[in-house]
Structures
1.
Amino acid sequence: MVHSRMLLFPLVLMFGVLASETVHAEDEASDGKLRIIAFGAHPDDAEFQMGGAAIKWAKLGHHVKLVSVTNGDLGHWEISGGPLAIRRTKEVQEAARRMGTSVEVLDIHDGELMPSLENRRTIARLIRDWNADLVLAHRPNDYHPDHRYTGILVQDAAFMVAVPFFVPDTKPLKKNPVFMYYPDRFKKPYAFEPDIAISLDDVFEKKVDAVDALVSQVYEGGALGSEETLIQRKAHDPVARKEILRDSWGRRNGGIANLYRDSLIEWYGQEAGAAVKYAEAYQVCEYGRQPSKEELKRLFPFFDK
């Protein structure tokens, strides 16, 4: 087992990448398209939670970026450290290619994310540099500390992105984005309640194809996998393992459709909403801009398609 947990990239390289993306984002900002940035704690979280919506936005020409706030270097039962972080970065890069989105992995150790001022500044810069209309993240009550702190960091940035002298090396946003949460199963202190649910029926196979790129997680079992996982998921048989993956994600996104059926009917109407097989759902954060139903329709322009 590899235990090295080196940082992957020199800071100068990291900031160089961010600077070039900032220029690109400014060039795109006036094209009339939406700009969505989604934060996940690890290289797979955002892909899992909003990969279907990302594909739908990208198909319509909107700009979508997925950010992993840690490098995922603890997320495997057999390898760890720099080699695993590099591998997982390549996996989400391939998933992004399949989805038609952008991706960035921050060089923070898996399991060590803290809601620090430095990290709050990093999140605020990313949201500003992307000129975001919509920001997605975990809720701050979750089983994993990295998930919780990702949610807290994004919440803490929700006001600060518009404050001129906070991280003054980046331009403050002229209007506050809408901030939204991914669903989870946790009930305390309050349960997830969707403000919008979207059908994935037209992109479900594409989402499965994108998730298929995350081999270390979906076929090898990530941090809690084992040799037995490889056998159960037929990890060495690309055709058989993808069928298992399709069945697994059918249950997952099918479960979301069934659980939030009332929201689907609200947005699609009785007949169409009742017929949806696979779905994703999102809840508006109390921080950031509070959208009307019409604005949510503009941010999720999928209901007249």
Note: Residues 77 and 225 are 6 Å apart (CA to CA).
2.
Amino acid sequence: MKSAPPIRAAIIGISGYGQVHLGLAREAAVRGLQLTAAVVINPAEEAARVAGLRAAGCRLYDDYKTMLAAERGRLDLCLIPTGIAWHGRMTVAALRAGANVLVEKPLAGSTAEIAPIRAAAAAAKRFVAVGFQDIYEPAAHALKRRLLAGAIGRLREIRMLGLWPRPPEYFSRNTWSGRLRADGRPVLDSPLNNAFAHFVNLALFFAGTRFHEAAAATAVEGMLWRTNPIESFDTGVVRARTAAGVRLWFGASHACATTREPELLLIGDAGRACWRHEANCVIEPKSGSVERFALPPTGDSRSAMMRAVLDRLRDPRAFICTPALARPHTALIERLHAVAPIRPAPGESVLRPRDGKGPLILCSPEAERRLCAAYLDGTLPV
């Protein structure tokens, strides 16, 4: 049998989150992926990885435009694990160079940047996969199908809560963290547009009335609080609803001393389901038996994402998180910032060790208390 041709891939950035995509590319080598080009803007800091890439025959560049011009027509896939402000422009450039794209979430910092992405993908006849890794999980697909089949009756409400403490250096780790704009583009960085964006996107997917659809949010309102000295918010709640009448509530914080892994609570008129990150999913109909299945660790979800992207290269029917599935999340975040001002967090701001023993977190205990209380009944904290 004739072997399949290699998958020629490029990566823009190998530091920070780029290390995750670099690892995924190495995993994918068993399926024929060859990293043939890479952008490295800090070769001195990444000397060991640079040496490894060169030894493997990967061509190195110091600028993504230069790389894409030189590699035009020679790439099957471009990995874009960069900051939010660069997602839109880099994705369009990669598509115009003839590559399919896996871009880190969110798809872009604004809905205005999404239309050019979709136009470029259509013109190039290439796809864009967005790195919302949890949506690629077979377990997510199984739950979506059970919801559409009426496992908990008509879906009425989805709530999401997550607490991931972050030390002050988290907000100074790059030029866009905690920012509303960077390099002339919207970023709207926040817990809901970055760390917990996966779960907001997943909730909108579950609320979609067809399998390959995500629900758009309307009637958006929110409460946004700032504890750390940043432009954006580090604790926030957004409430909204879908066209089908599903109520939405998403709350998250980095300015907290206690870790609470994200969970999605889905309430129907004939039961409920709960999705607990890296733990399990439980479907509890009012009549009938309880269904329970395990959820994998994040690393396994990322691997599932890469497998799906490689499948899509050879089968246009393979599931990926398309721009159409990712856009409702960006639209929700954009609308949230338009309607809800960012306010100082209530109560006293204090330095406390994460979970009683970790690094010091600048946190607002009162904001954390109000956030968790509001989750119980889906209200806005006051």
Note: The chain has a mean pLDDT of 97.
3.
Amino acid sequence: MMRERRILLGGIAVVALLAAGAARAGGVDLEALAERARAEGGVINTYGMPETWANYGGIYARFEEKYGIRQQDIDMGSSVVLARMREENASKNDVADLKPAFASILAGEGLTYPYRVSCWDDLPEGQKGIGKDGSTWYAAYKGTLGWIVNTRMVEKVPRSWKELADPAYEGLVAYLDPRATGTGEATVKAAAYAVAGDPYDVEAGARFLGKLHEMGIVASVDPKVDVSKFQRGEVAILINFDYNLLKWKEDLGIPAEVVIPEDGTIASGGGVVGARNAPHPKTVELFLEYLLCGEGQQLYAAGFVSPMNPKVELPAEIAAKFPPREAYANVRFVDYRKDAEISDRLKEAWARAVGAQ
């Protein structure tokens, strides 16, 4: 028998489905695990999981409500997480959010917690891995690259990369610099997939963006996420990941449409790992179960971040805020290992193609 509990987060009523047998998951006695976790001190130390990112504020608030365990976070980027966990021999934090490529590196060095969640088999291939001495890594959520269009300024909404190359959009497009941001790199790979069928044909992606520059379509290439130009009407088409685009659509009060390009784009995950020598190991196990195998996945979606576990169903009021499932039909997941290998070549190809200094 299932019963529902509605949790209000950021104005969204999240339906948490609580089964009579929910104390067990895949053979794991969650209540017993929770008791052992609480006995470790009632805290979980995190790196790179601030409340403003990926709805971690909502996720950890609910985790504390449910299990009495409070989060203590130090906000840092992926490269800093990688360096810190190496320096500390993965002994100061419990869990961390970082790029999947870096998560995989840490697992390969035996610095991540050796625990396979009960829903391991449900998680897609390529979005989890086992490294040295059983160390594991996960991609817990995902984003898909697209764009948001100010429909007050743009009469005909472009639905493909090819359609962006239209003089009607002169001076209206903005995206992030590939030399400074992962989203900028993703823009080159997404364009490459659309025009050449291979996200790692970065020269093709760079040439296409170079063409947009030559036509005067690109108004701005920014070194960090900046929605202010879109707000002011200086640009009308802003390229980014869907989790940002959907939030901007809801928050900005501007008539807008979020587009997942029909001729192809890329998706990329967000990595989560436990620390090998975590101060609260049973808390790590409990949190990974919570985050990857059920309610935590729903709460990601409440922040417009797409959950990775395909068996987790979203409440209807949240699912309705995303583009329809068919919009994601021509999406290719990146290869995290290749991402690291081609990063420098991508940046060089883009700089040549657009004449960047």
Note: The first strand starts at residue 2 and ends at 9.
4.
Amino acid sequence: MRMGMALAFGIGELDTAVVALAGFLLRGGVVLLALPSVVLPSVIGIAGVTGIDAVGIDGRPTPWLFEIVAVFGGAVILWLALASLIGSLIDVWLIEATIDATGRPVRRRRAIPEIGLLFDMVAVRGICLLPVAAALAWASTRVYTVAYNELTTPSNLATPLPVRVVENAADAVVVVALVWLVTETVAALAVRRLVLADGGVWVSIVGALVQIVRRPFSTVSTAVASTGASVLATAVAVAATATAFDWCRVAARSQQPIAISLGFGPLSTTRDFRPVVFVLTALVLATAWVAAAALSGIASASRSAAWTGEVVASMPSAQVCPTVAELGLSGGSGERSGD
């Protein structure tokens, strides 16, 4: 029932899906959606770019490689920090919108979230990401070993390098994914307890852990259903854009003319319709991108609503008062952005 209400929330209002999509893209969804349209580099291509600077003759990484990794890591950390801050603002919007849609107002009016609340939400997610960082540090050695072996003695040149690395280091990938799923569950609960109950960072995290212990079946079912729906939506979106991109690539590289005769009798003419086919495939790709974005936004909004409903169900005695109109919330209040 709760997932049905969450799905109705995701598809009920256009602005809800758009806001949820913005949060999804900021937090890395843009990489997933763009991945099918990226041509993965070959071993020769990587070697041509890095030359002998990345790995020494003894197989060990060079200082140059550490510098590149450090710069790239710094850029990723900066991006994650900004994405977390803006994403927290989007989380507040979605939480308030979910409460508004169910007719239960929040504790107090919050026209614009206090900057302290946003930083607390960032802190909650940052603390919950520490186990993921530890898992990544453990898995990095395994992934590096597999990647080096595939670069020096490839097992299958027909398969892209990243795919081969994931296949041969599947144990490390599974461990990181499981740790991320657990910590994401704790973070989702803690963030909503922070917003709805005005608790501190550690109080919200401890409350989330206690909620998991007290409501294990409900929490696990919500995690499996919401995450499964998001994974399925992302997989469908990636498959659609990947197929459309392949069509565009085939149409662009086609060397065989597509001859079609137009007209009648002496007025007929034959034209090569390859440009028309390419334009049509490009339109299909654009349509697939729009559909993928819409599906991702609906899935993200529904997942957020499901977690908000789970927290609200565990806090029946929460004190409430009128909802916010200034954030442009969708729902029963009838007030929307720009009203």
Note: The longest strand covers residues 259-262.
